[in-house]
Amino acid sequence: NCTFKTNRVPFGTKHLDAVLCVPNSGEDVYTAVILTHGAGGDMNFKHLVSLAHALASNGFLCLRFTCKGLNLGYRVKAYHAVWDYLTSLKKFTIKRVYVGGRSMGCRAAAALARQLSEQTKDAVRGIICLSFPLHPPGQTHAYRQRSEDLQALPEHTSVLFVSGTEDNMCDRGLFDGMVEELKAQAEVFWLQGGSHGLTVKGRSEDFVLNEVNEHVITWMSKQED
After folding, report:
1. How confident is the model at residue 108 (pLDDT cuts 50, 70, 90)?
2. Full residue range of the structural domain in which residue 94 is found
3. Where do the KANL3/Tex30 alpha/beta hydrolase-like domain residues begin and end (predicted)?
4. How many independent structural domains does the chain possess?
5. pLDDT tier, 202 (very low <50, low <70, confident <90, very high otherwise)
6. How far is C-alpha 146 from the geometric centre of its chain's CA atoms?
7. CATH number where 176 lies
């Protein structure tokens, strides 16, 4: 249902490896999604590949990329380079861009969305946060600092959180309180029994991935209306 195209995105004197997933529908694509991975792994993490397939199958362009740096500021700069690259592609008429990722990747996406929103109102339509790492395991005091970028997002931004109820980096009480304080329009999908890696004991990984993907697609379709 989609065509893969490997890309090398300019980033200072380096390049970032990226893959563009293009819908085969033959229709013009107006909405694009950028995704990246957590602190470990790369853009070929199974969850990102699965979601990219699902997005392209539903008519959304998806660009996922690898950035190995563990410094958040460095990650945000890399994300900005990818956003610049995507929005400059002449082949597509991109009118709406969503940014997202899993764990550290969605922290970088939120930070970029905050930066861009301070410059241009419609730079980012929404953010997809898979397993937002509200705090390190056992260090719930860090949640305020980890959520600063989310708190600063403007009202017209939409955010989807997908988190597991057993995620040891996301205390549910603190998380629910944080979401209530957001100015942005937030929606939360709690995966019952889900870990930080969004795995659920007793359920197949593919089944869980399909459930997560369906929620992302449904949420995006609502934003498009």
Report:
1. very high
2. 2-224
3. 31-207
4. 1
5. very high
6. 16
7. 3.40.50.1820
